[in-house]
Write a structure and sequence with these properties.
Distance between the termini: 26 Å
Radius of gyration: 15 Å
Order of helices and strands: HEEE
Number of strands: 3
Number of helices: 1
Structural class: alpha+beta
Strand content: 25-35%
Largest sheet: 3 strands, antiparallel
Shape: flat
């Protein structure tokens, strides 16, 4: 599984000032390629584009 944690780390650093705050990290049941898009699908049917790859060189 590939997760870019930088955005979650930034939220966590900001949250340290507060007493407690939780960050939701998506866990996908299925990850697949559709054309040039990497798509993650959750168990409830929610789909999200994780990354879009361009064919530009």
């Amino acid at each position: 599984m590939i997760i870019n944690l930088n955005e979650y780390r930034n939220k966590h650093r900001k949250a340290k000032k507060k007493s407690s705050q939780f960050v939701k990290i998506p866990v996908y049941e299925r990850v697949y390629m559709d054309g040039n898009k990497l798509i993650g699908e959750c168990s409830n049917g929610y789909k999200a584009v994780i990354k879009e790859y361009n064919d530009e060189k």
